[in-house]
Amino acid sequence: MVKKIAVFVGSLRKESFNRKMARVLTTLAPESLALEIIEIGGLPLYNQDCDDEGKPLAAWTEFRERVKSFDGVLFVTPEYNRSVPGVLKNAIDVGSRPYGQSVWEGKPGAVISVSPGAIGGFGANHHLRQSLVFLNVPAMQQPEVYIGGAAKLFDANGNIPNETTRELLVKFVNAFAVWVAKNSSTNL
Ligand SMILES: Cc1cc2nc3c(=O)[nH]c(=O)nc-3n(C[C@H](O)[C@H](O)[C@H](O)COP(=O)(O)O)c2cc1C
Questions:
Q1: Is 149 in the pocket of ligand 1 (CB under 6 A)?
Q2: pLDDT over threshold 60, residue 51
């Protein structure tokens, strides 16, 4: 059975390297995975009062319902100040509440970070994993993917000509397909 994967991109930039990476992954994924980018830029900032008063914002409810319909989650993110960009952290927070109703619960996940810098967004990648531990998202450990030098990664059509990088990405999505098949709660 094809597993549906929600992809979250931690950048709103028009020419985002991370969005380009998410698109490339969509094309490299095996037939057992259907990757779909879920937009998070329009999500209002999380305010617990709205949930506590029983008046969650419509955009939050729509987002929560949407994420629930997926079998797994993939995060493709830049690093902002050695951590997770606010837009992505906000989406994670929105999905995690009301307390006890987190949409992330038990969904198998994976993380890729992409940066023009040399260390490939390692800080963001691992800060994100810290949240995923708490949210009970089993996050794939290997292969780790921290992509540096992103300014030279893509051609004019958004493709990745470097064969070694493409091979790593194919290995990553294939491993993720196995990970999702093993850890999916929809297997139960
Ligand atoms: C607020 C801000 C903070 C940043 N901090 C980091 C950082 O800590 N590490 C890093 O490698 N790049 C950092 N950058 C540079 C980003 O990696 C770069 O802008 C990258 O292109 C963002 O990803 P995108 O192309 O997907 O938008 C930062 C950029 C911004 C706007």
A1: no
A2: yes
Q: CA-CA distance, 5 to 26, in Å (whole number)?
A: 10
Q: Is the CB of 87 under 6 A from ligand 1?
A: no
pLDDT above 60 for 188: no
Q: How many CA atoms lie within 13 A of 28 on its CB side?
A: 21
Q: Which of 184, 151, 187, 186 is nearest to 15 (CA)?
A: 151
- Tell me if 11 CB under 6 Å of ligand 1: yes
The whole-number pLDDT of residue 185 equals 77
- To which H or E segment does residue 176 belong? helix 163-183
In this predicted structure, which of 13-17, 131-135, 184-188 has the lowest mean pLDDT?
184-188
State mean pLDDT over 150-167.
Answer: 97
Ligand 1 centroid–CA 78 distance in Å is 6
Q: Verify whether ligand 1 is closer than 6 Å to residue 60 (CB atom).
A: no
Question: Strand, helix or coil at 25?
Answer: helix
SS3 call for 4: strand
